[in-house]
## 1
Amino acid sequence: MVLQMESPAPSIKVETWLRGEPISHFQPSKVYIVEFWATGSELCAAAIRHLIQLQEKFRDSGLEVVGVAAHERASSAVKARAKLDAWFTEKCSDLNFPIAFDHTGEMKKLWMEASSSVRVPTSFVIDLDGRIAFIGHPTELDEILPKVLNGSWCTSDAAKAPDSKRIADRELTAREQALNKSINKRFWAAVRKEDWKTALSAVEQGTALMEGDITFRLAHAHLLLHRMHDMRTGLPVIRKLVRDAIGRNSENWLLATLDLLFGPAHDHSHFPSHDRFALGKELVEHILALNPPQGDGHKFRAYPAVARYYHESGNQNRAIELVEMALKSLDRPEPIVDELKQYLLPSLLRALANYKGKKVCYDAFCATPQHILPKVPNRGRPRRKHRKD
């Protein structure tokens, strides 16, 4: 079924509800916004805040907002839910509408694929008669929603233009996705063969075409620095990535870039120590500015990564302090759900035990040092290590 203007709204088929009261069907005489989004997009974070405002403003006029989490990148439904719970706890403690969890892809198929919508956030507005009145970007809702609520939207000339534009954009996006798929196929085929030159060629093509896609940017730097050990070419690439992450002021970009420099999964021995720590310092300062120690924001997502930087810098006390703040943030300013807490605690406690070099406990959980940590040179001056992007 092709979903477009004036089509009957599809049904609501979700695995479970993460927040709010479940909605089983669309009631007559109400207008609904069904919005698909993902935690990895800064645009989606802004869209959720916008929806909170719209729900508050138009609730008495018959508006009901439904958020659908159908695009989470995670290896399992449990991990996806834990990621979502952490995101909502940190970003949207004042959420005033229900959130559906669609890990099976049923809602995505019925709504996104049927309307050829490929990007998130995407909003669907269902009118008083249960029909699709709008499909598009949430930024257009301020103008469209009042007209849908008073019944004047569907008869207006303006109602037809967004759908025509969406169809044209869909064709362009389909071509971009086909190209993206082709690049990824060539990239992963080369990676499996450890043909780094071909893999680099593929990822450079992807970066040139989609500079705003952090996946290609990270893969580009990782190949140069950690696979090919080409510091001459890789250093300018990672420096630009650091500048762009800071310029975007995006915690996702900042943390992903910091992980390339200090993530435990990578060998940093080939990376010039001075450059790695200088770039790391820039990143952690901006991460801490976004979520300062004295603030009420949850620390469990960002602070463990920042603590790794301080540990390798030789500042053990600061590393320990940051992990302890991350642990405390599990219970305040608002306690997180128990499932998420049990998922996060083991890694946080292992890090704390490793930094302290002894057994540590938190509530009923305990951890002992799991491995020998990298030795830190005297006076806190790091050795030359390989940095990861």
Note: Residues 12 and 25 are 6 Å apart (CA to CA).
## 2
Amino acid sequence: MNIDLFIRRSLSIFAITAAAFVGHLPAVSAKTDAPILVLNSLNADVSVIDPKTWTEIKRVPVGKEPHHLYLTPDEKSVMVANAEGDSITFLDPMTAQVQQTMTGIVDPYHLRFSPDMKWFVTAANRLNHVDIYTWDNKGGTFKLNLVKRIPAGKTPSHIAIDSKSKIAYISLQDSHELTAIELATQKRLWTVKVGKTPADLYLTPDDKTLLIGLTGAAEVEAYDVSNGKAVLKTRIPTGKGAHAFRSQGDKRHVFVSNRSANTISRIDWKTLKVVDTYRTPAGPDCMEMMADGKTLLVTTRWAGKLSVIDLEKKAVVKQIPVGKSPHGVWTLNHASRD
């Protein structure tokens, strides 16, 4: 082969390969640059935090009492559930710009998509019911279709859905109960009494063990839900006001915030033991694990701040002022939910 032709072809192949490689870089960079979103429940807005400067760069008005948020199935929008505003605000996960506001969604305190993305479930914290929707995104317009409204006990709080998209588990905060609903039939399967003031739920990736944070106690209850019912396995002492969960993303550990004890416990969900404790001031609440596997974000509810925990140092290394009563926190640059 002519050596000049060989060199030109080799350079062309290299250029194409390099271009393809570079073509992937913006997506990686984009995730790293993705802002951190904090829901300020008593301000009806969202703090947008730059992850490089660790400063609040703007506030985005949403509806009244935003508490929790969730990514849409196409990953193009973050849904902010405005509980008392009876609405859901859609934000661009990269710019935090408002894309649309969906009204008529009654009291969406907590929200979850089923893993197969067929069902969308909300817990109406103040109105004592659970809503089950289907959804479609035809023509670029996201629409929810209410299938059934199911009366629940007092103060439905948090939702967990199994990996097969068959069962939704809901904590009933002021009834001190846990209930299970079959999504396909929208029928309640069972309801059991649990500890005092159950809040967030964490279902292990194998669908066998359901953890419940007991905000009215100082522990997490672990239930075996593998055989169509809930059987108490053990109680895990954590700290007063056990409330919200976030997996570490390593398929082994999950964090729980102890809101009254001002600590976060790291639980090995295979042994059901606490293996680490982190001190966090002023009412730690919702958490987000960043993709680096070293940085845990936690909303500091009573101080109006976002706290940043370095897991290797086991210490709060930054606190960023946000709005009043910060609750949900989320970034596209997050670790796995497993």
Note: The radius of gyration is 21 Å.
